Amino acid sequence: MRIVDVDIIPIALSDPPLRNSWGVHEPVALRSIVRLTTDDGCVGWGETYGGEEILGKLQSAASIVLGQDPAQFNRTRILINNPGVFAAYETAMLDLLGKESGRPVCDVLGGKIRDAVDYSAYLFYKYEGDDEWGEAMSPEQLVVQAETFVERYGFQTLKLKGGVLPPVEEAETMLQLRNRFPDHELRIDPNAIWSVETSIRFAGWVEDLDLEYLEDPAPDLAGMAAVAQATPIPLSTNMVVTAFPHIAPAVEMDAVQVVLGDHHHWGGMLASLQLAKICETFRLGVSQHSNSHTGISLAAMTHWAAAAPNLIYASDTHYPWNEDDDIVAGAPLQFVNGAFPVPDGPGLGVEVDDDSLQAAHERYLQNKAAGRDDVSAMQERDPNWLPMRPRW
Ligand code: GKR
Ligand code: MG
């Protein structure tokens, strides 16, 4: 089996005005879809971030992938020499291998440890938008949003994207979530917008709420290490440990207790399993980061998470925010009791719907942009907005 065709298809998904510490989500989220076709007519799918930079890099790597045997991961990874670019191709190559052997991707990765992967509700402060969720800019409105997530998807873990309201109001939001959901796991992630001092103060305010972890409260390893020393709440990160060379210093400094993997970023699913093993070695927890994505990425996230024995935290997912524009057949894909069942069909176990892909590509053409820009989107609402870091 040889890859005879490589297509890179930029798409855009409608996105609600979700707030974060940089600003606000733009009306569309950009993604890049990879389609590989083999000489025997098999089609494999991959997905990664969108925007001109990654699109250019994916296009440049196409000549490396063309003509390859899809089982040659090591050779292709070395030649591409870029973890994010390789990851998108690796997903499509694993899809092809699975389809060729009639087995799900998790089997190609060594076999699944669990039949379904737990996911977390991803709660966002948000403005009123052209969506059914309404405004959520207060603790009370956030609790209503959480109720909808729990009722609709059955999530048993709730993650709040923080760094939006003054920290004391975000602590109040966590308190109200805890009162409303006494048995759910709770986490908050302000994306390093608090100083070390504010982070330590915040950790004190929420210490009795039994948080599962506090994600990226303060910037850089030294900042995280200082916060970690001052609180018993475990710290997690997708900002200070984002590549293999960052692990050793993080361990030496005891800066984080949980590392968030992300196959799009860490160099694919095989690399993510290596990350999970390294985390086990150093007694670090491993969880999973997300960004806006389609069902292709949901399937990929689920396959590697199902094959990682120590990935026992619920994984993040943005899927519910973008599911109406998903491009896979049968979308929106369904969570069952807060978990996504590991697809058992060949390959990723999801197929792309041609009409939905075309619609998402046209949405991209209408909203073409160099890349994600939450800051400018926020400045349209507030011309004086500056993404200060630390803000508090
Ligand atoms: O979607 O606004 C967002 C998130 O803030 C995302 O961009 C982050 O990468 O979810 C991510 C995180 O956990 O930091
Ligand atoms: Mg994060």
Strand content: 15-25%
Structural class of the secondary structure composition?
Answer: alpha/beta
Contiguous uncertain segments of 5+ residues: none
* Rg over alpha carbons: 20 Å
Describe the structure.
This protein has 392 residues and is an alpha/beta fold. The chain contains 15 helices and 12 strands. The protein has helices at 52-65, 73-80, 83-101, 105-108, 139-153, 167-180, 196-205, 221-230, 247-252, 263-266, 269-281, 295-307, 319-322, 354-366, 374-381; strands at residues 3-14, 28-38, 43-49, 116-124, 157-161, 185-189, 213-215, 235-237, 258-261, 285-288, 315-316, 339-341. The strands form 2 sheets. Strands 4, 5, 6, 7, 8, 9, 10, 11 and 12 form a 9-stranded mixed beta sheet that branches. Strands 1-2-3 form a 3-stranded antiparallel beta sheet. Strand 2 (28-38) and strand 3 form a beta hairpin. The longest helix has 19 residues, at 83-101. The N and C termini lie far apart (56 Å). The relative contact order is 0.17. It binds D-glucarate and magnesium ion. Magnesium ion binds next to loops.
